[in-house]
Amino acid sequence: MSETPSTPYLAGQGQRKVSSDQLRQRIPGWGADLDPGDRPSVPKERMDLPTGAHWDFPERQEERQPRERSIEHQFLTPVFGTSVPLKGLSGSMRRYAYKYSEARAAHWLILIAADRVDAGGSHLRSFLTLHPDNPLTETGILSEFTRHGISSRFGKKRADLKGQALAPVFVAGPWILAAAAAFAAARVLARAARNRATRA
Amino acid sequence: MRSMVYRGPYKVRVEEKDIPRIEHPNDAIVRVTASAICGSDLHLYHGMMPDTRVGTTFGHEFVGVVHEVGSSVEHLSVGDRVMVPFNIYCGSCYFCERGLYSNCHNVNPNATAVGGIYGYSHTCGGYDGGQAEFVRVPFADVGPTLIPDWMDEEDAVLLTDALPTGYFGAQLGGISEGDTVVVFGAGPVGLFAAKSSWLMGAGRVIVVDHLEYRLEKARTFAHAETWNFAEYEDIVVEMKKTTDYLGADVVIDAAGAEADGSFLQNVTASQLKLQGGSPVALNWAIDSVRKAGTVSVVGAYGPIFSAVKFGDALNKGLTLRMNQCPVKRQWPRLFEHLRSGYLKPSDIITHRIPLEHAAEGYHMFSAKLDNCIKPLLIPSAY
Ligand SMILES: [Zn+2]
Ligand SMILES: [Zn+2]
User: Fold this and answer.
1) Do A163 and B244 make contact, defined as CB atoms within 8 angstroms?
2) Is-contact B275 B259, C-beta < 8 A?
3) What is the pTM of this model?
4) In A65, B149, B158, B380, which residue has its Cα 20 to 30 A from B344's Cα atom?
């Protein structure tokens, strides 16, 4: 073994390449918060910070329609968001998910599944409105042309291209499988119809 | 009013919505003058955050003008120019009383593990966000602060999340004089974490990413050394070699669950949805920090399980620290640093996009087109 052992194999401090004085010269504000006491989140818990609250327990927001909540809560929190109330099939799924605590995988997996049902259903329903979903404008794909989409991608080593190459398989895969299943089902039905026709 | 609206994974559009109304006596309605798209919004945009409902408006980084106030609001009046921290919090519960504003227990009925966040799914309380002309701001006496006269509005937008979160990431690292700090992710939070590490006395700051234009920003804006992980077979080995086989004293994960990098993680997380996001940055952090070192996590992770190398963290005796940033707690000190000229957050803004073009903004930011680091959305002239 001819190499000199480096820091962790030896006792003592590692060697610093640049001194604090050199850093103070080079970097604006170097060391301004060297003292942990100057760092706002030290210590982690402090009871002396004024918050602006002028209540011990906030007044309660009116619950205009039944509001789902985590069963880990004692009651509905005094303030809550009202952006998109539960509705439809995805709403039923979500209501069901909230029967499980946050500790249960079922809670989160049902919510994620409900999100997909919500997205698919909303997409279909949009075609019944004056404002149908438009994949061209809503995916923002047009920015590939206006925001240097080509030059942003090629000639640079991009790690995410690895994933992108496979994306079509995962995105298109379920559709291809569904189409194959539909084709198989149609063939079964057609054969049954033919059999009935020949018997008649 | 005009508002960005989520339509399902990778789809958003701008549509007409009702102007939000006062739902609680301490609410305010704020007319938004600028909002930002955040890296963590991509977690929603990609459909990875549970209970993200179609019709939701995103946007937790915004500034604006008070348009209406509820009956119990004492500290704000109509016409005030305000910056609003991304956390929604009551100011009086067990957690708020201890300064843990991001962990408020009174604002999110949907979950107890996370507080309230504007425009961040029903898992974070079901509030609409600020990528719209107007937004409802609960606890107006607690969260918002007047934008000081001397402060640029675009600096104020970055003070609502990205800068305080980056600074908070460095604080959680418990940096001591001369420490070697590695930051995974050269997005806005990573850039600010790197810059803040110097304020706390770091001796060496290394930023790791795979996008050359972001690393360039890390060198010029944050004075950091940079490593492009796409150029190496195994970035962890490189981190060990450059730290005399010791590992870094502190590693900050500023990438979160949208991190690129590992093929296996990408397939199981993003494609197959077997994980709640890719913890590749977190695992690299656990691997490249020195034994008994500190890993600080400020990248966004959802509530669903991810394959994290916990055994290595145990065997190395690591300190793992993490939280959503209690933004307003950081403000007084950060205001001082802005005034001293140590920090100029708006330097990282690369795009200013009309709100109407939100879909293009999201795609550009998600696909990292046009050297995008931080895009702002500007509601049309009102
Ligand atoms: Zn953010
Ligand atoms: Zn609270």
Assistant:
1) no
2) no
3) 0.91
4) B380
